[in-house]
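Hi, here's the filled form for the chain we discussed.

Project: internal
Contact: R.S.
Residues: 211
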Amino acid sequence: MHRTESNLEIFKLHWVDPEDLEHIAGTVSESEPGAYHIEQIRPSAKDTEFGSIEGGDWDEPTHRFDSLLNYQAFRDHFVDGVPWDETKLYHRHAERIEDEYRSYGCRSIGNLQQKFESYDELYQKIETEGYRSVRELQADPLHDIRISIGRSGRLLYHGEGRHRLCIAKILSIDEIPVLVHTRHQELVYPKSAKSDNQIPISNGTTFKRNK
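And the returned structure, exactly as it came back:
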């Protein structure tokens, strides 16, 4: 692993088109009962810190963000008008709670209903007030959406803020703030000339719009 903190400005926010975050930088698997999410995302660039530069094939994604239960439930509810308690995500959490496990941070069906209703409030707030960064809301700045950047400049969802990213995609928000967690070694130390399909950002790295 290589680090170049002075050049990468690792905790700086960057603004990207949420539609460019099509894939996940890692694997998706069923979580253990008692976990917060039904689906656990394990980043392929293992045990890295903010600002890491990693080689390897971790930037060859196999999972799409829109395949997550969270996105499918949000789309069904906000686009198609499906009640929360008729979504697969709700049922999966309810099953775990009925089996006496904590799920989605909830221990009762009543708590679970309130949890989902809070996403109605979040959706309405983003729709009317616009998308704001977590640090702008004076919360933990490390809870903004995290991305990784592959060797070709592909943007990959790394973690945090999956509900906010769902809403941003559904509302067709133009740009959202993100933290860059990991960059591919070949992006930072390229073996060949840069692609014409890359977008420069302020710190010298390039982001690539997916087509």
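Let me know if anything looks off before we file it.
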